[in-house]
Amino acid sequence: MKTINISLPKSLSEQISYQVKIGNYASISEFIREGARKLLSGYPISFTSEAEEEILKISRQPKKDDLVFDSSKTPVSKMFTQLKKTKE
Hints:
Layout: H1 10-21, H2 28-41, H3 49-60, H4 76-87
């Protein structure tokens, strides 16, 4: 494996070090290698599994203006009627 040196802004270096500190990566080198692989493969850099889990958890929670239906008690026709009313 070839060794290279890179210069990073302090804030970026701190963010990478934090990812290593909390255990998302074994080392700074591992973080950089994964980022390089993803950039070279053409796929967007993904979230950590913890971040993705949190995003999914938040997205499942109803928002203030969301309509929430209990599908076991509400007929589909009534759901659509209510949805149409909110759109008008």
